[in-house]
């Protein structure tokens, strides 16, 4: 359980820093940025936890985490007021790198202790 909390906090802080310092996802308020980052961190950590229990292959797990993270970002942008997504090549690359970063954070923080 400690690993899940660590993954949640680490992912949430990384997303907050990435969104706050770039203009690819403009957010109106600081509270909206914090809430969206926390939601993305929690949902991606929970997704990674479930995938760790079901998928054995690391490559398949990371690919599914990237797809799941992108779906989570799109739903957060859709449901939270004040969040917008700028369309373009830079935004697409930013979102892809953000999803890969989330998958890497979750893969390394949710390690299996034996």
Task: Describe the overall structure.
The protein is an all-alpha fold. About 75% of the residues lie in helices and about 0% in strands. The model has no long low-confidence stretch (mean pLDDT about 90).
The average pLDDT value, as a whole number, equals: 89
Tally of DSSP helical segments:
4
Identify the overall geometry.
globular
**What is the gyration radius calculated from CA atoms?**
14 Å
Q: How is the biggest beta sheet arranged? A: none
Tell me the number of strands: 0
Q: Structural class, from helix and strand content?
A: mainly alpha
pLDDT < 50 runs, ≥5 residues: none
Q: What is the helix content?
A: over 70%
Q: How far do the termini sit from each other?
A: 14 Å
**Which H/E pattern describes the elements?**
HHHH
Strand content: under 5%
Task: Quickly describe the structure.
With 114 residues, the protein is mainly alpha-helical. The protein is built from four helices and no strands.
């Amino acid at each position: 359980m400690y690993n899940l909390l660590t993954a949640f906090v680490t992912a949430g802080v990384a997303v907050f820093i990435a969104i706050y310092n770039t203009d690819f996802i403009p957010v109106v308020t600081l509270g909206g940025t914090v809430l969206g980052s926390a939601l993305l961190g929690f949902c991606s950590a929970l997704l990674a936890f479930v995938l760790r229990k079901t998928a054995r292959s690391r490559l398949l797990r990371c690919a599914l985490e990237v797809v799941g993270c992108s779906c989570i970002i799109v739903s957060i942008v859709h449901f939270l007021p004040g969040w917008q997504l700028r369309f373009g090549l830079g935004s697409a690359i930013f979102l892809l790198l953000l999803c890969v970063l989330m998958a890497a954070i979750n893969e390394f923080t949710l390690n299996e202790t034996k």
